[in-house]
Amino acid sequence: MPRSRSKKPKAKRAATNHLAVADAIGLELTQSITRVLEAPGQRLVGASALASRIDFSRVLICRILNALKCDEPLEAMQRLPGPESLRTFVDEMRRLGVASTRVKAALTAIERFDDLIRKRFRTRAALNAAISSHAPSMLKRLELGARQRVFAGMRELRGGEADAWLSTTMVVPSRDDPSKLTSLVLQGFIGLRQLRSDLSVYFDFVPVNESGAAKQTVDDLPVGPAGLSEFCTNPPAKLEIEEVAGRKIYRLASTQIGKDVVCDMLSFMRIPGSLPRFAKSAGRRTGPFALIKAPVKTLHFDVLIADGLVDDSVPELFVFSPGPRNCTNVNDRIDDLDRVTVPERVEVMRAEASTFEVAAVPNYRRLVERMASDAGHDLTAMRVHRVSIAYPPFGYEFVSTFRLRSAP
Description:
Layout: H1 10-37, H2 47-51, H3 58-68, H4 73-79, H5 83-95, H6 100-121, H7 124-131, H8 136-158, E1 160-173, E2 180-194, E3 202-205, E4 223-224, E5 239-244, E6 247-252, E7 263-276, E8 289-291, E9 296-305, E10 316-320, E11 347-350, H9 364-375, E12 383-390, E13 397-401
Parallel strand pairs: 1-9
Antiparallel strand pairs: 1-2, 2-7, 3-6, 4-7, 5-6, 8-13, 9-12, 10-13, 11-12
């Protein structure tokens, strides 16, 4: 009879093997470079002192020293400079008198590091992507660097940028219908700059129901940016508001450009009957989405929920890459095809005064107090679900979900 084989998929076995090889090389690399730095006469030398003695960048020395503090070889490998820089560093250390055996061991490890990149992954970026799944901190570092590069390119292509995109939804019982919930939605750009006069900067809004379809026409929505000027840190944007294919479009009216031409572009709306009071079925998730129409440095995404509306399940963040449908349904398995993994999670917070002191949105506490006053509810009695993401990928859809309580 043929020998039994593991049922692990070949692709997964190959990926596991690559990680094992990388881990072994990372361990050899960190240990050998550590021995170079711990050679007689070099122990306890800091980055500045060492940079004054060798012809090598102080910034790269700091990177090397910080990488060697990591407990995991793969994380150290992700943080270390590339092979060529490491070779130059070790050669400079040899000129300081480090023993040739230690230098040779380090150069051998660096050569294996170089082979790992070229022969197994082709580029350093591909290696970093492959090993990033080893630990959440590595994935977060990889994604942050990638998002910053996307931001830099997209702000030129889209013709605008902002310090932050604010998306806050407050969910409270309906005043008129005990079987429904009302949503108050505050959203918009903080610190918006237009970089190109030939491209328009805008955002839009349409409420959706639990199936991901448009819930009602814009004519049903009390909508408007009026009355928000006092909460703006920067001059309030001049807006052109229009209806296009069932959507309310907020377009920046000004086409002025320059480093000092900065504005806040906010809107506030109240949506009666946005959700049913109780879950339609057990386990079903719902929640607002954030879809950013210009590159931003920070996404501040809050859901404030009145007491007693949701069950005890953990809120979950869903992130989707651009797909054929406008609004993704988190309960539809077909939309899982477009779901992407991110290191960020929904943080559950108490509605204390300090919770609403947010650096990215200087007047945030006053804004949410205004929302709570409009809703007729006590802000401090609400539950806060918060998502904060640095350099959110442009075009991605972020959905902060929760589960409503079942009917008694």
